[in-house]
């Protein structure tokens, strides 16, 4: 039971870490003028489209 609690705690920590990485990636994409994934000019619509794929 205690092992399960520690495992869940670690999973929560990893999820938070992943969210931070995704947020940093989003900020990086916003700084670029052209999306490296599709070559289109970056705007909110393109970002939302790619974020659906990531999340």
In percent, how much strand structure appears in the residues?
Answer: under 5%
Q: Low-confidence parts lasting 5 or more residues at pLDDT below 50?
A: none
Which structural class fits the helix and strand makeup? Answer: mainly alpha
In terms of quaternary structure, the protein is single chain
Instruction: Give the end-to-end Cα distance, rounded to a whole number of Å.
Output: 30 Å
Number of strands: 0
Tell me, briefly, the overall form.
elongated
Describe this structure in words.
The structure is a single chain. The protein has 55 residues and is mostly helical. The chain has one domain. It is 75% helix and 0% strand. The chain is built from two helices and no strands. The protein has helices at residues 2-31, 44-54. It is elongated and about 50 Å long. The two termini are 30 Å apart.
List the helices and strands and how they pair.
Layout: H1 2-31, H2 44-54
